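Quick one: sequence plus pyridoxal-5'-phosphate SMILES, need structure tokens.
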Amino acid sequence: MSLNDILSRIRAEEIRTGRAPGSAKLIAVSKVQPIERVEAVLEEGHRMFGENKVQEAAGKWPALRDRFPGVDLHLIGPLQTNKARQAMELFDVIQTIDRPKLARTIARLKDELGHCPRLFIQVNTGEEEQKAGVSPAEVDDFIAECRGLGLEIDGLMCIPPVGEESSLHFALLAKIAARNGIEELSMGMSDDFEKAVAQGATYVRVGSALFGARDYGPV
Ligand SMILES: *Cc1c(COP(=O)(O)O)cnc(C)c1O
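Reply:
Sure thing.
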């Protein structure tokens, strides 16, 4: 799908569900994509991108930012504490805060660096063993803990389990956000971004539908 196709589908869903046009924003997930595909989307004027690895983002985005001013870069993959400083220097939004140790490290670095990206908490709505994120039962306490450390939590993010109806997970995330006074919801990927818009997503994260399938090479 072209960039315009995806933006029109988001817009159509906003209108169909009575939401303000532009209230759901597109994060183009550029991980693993060949640089020409990323440049093509930048040339079309898009500026909001997502990466899931600090190292990979560090290798390509500083140079792209020089050429294309106004990039808004989101970290959507797990963050190790020892990469927190680099991530805070590289990203405008970190969507994957998911444990007290990471929150404490970011709070300390925030004072040291004098700035902090916008922060979202990842919620493991499906309570999957192998998946990152705070469990729904613990998330209210964790949000309070982050706030107690002086961190502003602007949003929540989730990745629903494969094979389950994602709308139920999106609705759960929206409910947790509402009861905690949190505005931003990052949910919905290539296969279900319209459902996410219907459930109130303010950011959808679309990779393969926009750029084509990711080629991870021989494995
Ligand atoms: C890769 C990734 C996406 C994009 O997935 P597609 O199915 O290619 O749209 C979205 N969110 C996260 C957290 C990802 O890691």
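Residues 29, 31, 52, 76-77, 159, 189-190, 205-209 surround pyridoxal-5'-phosphate (CB under 6 Å). The chain has one domain: 3-210.
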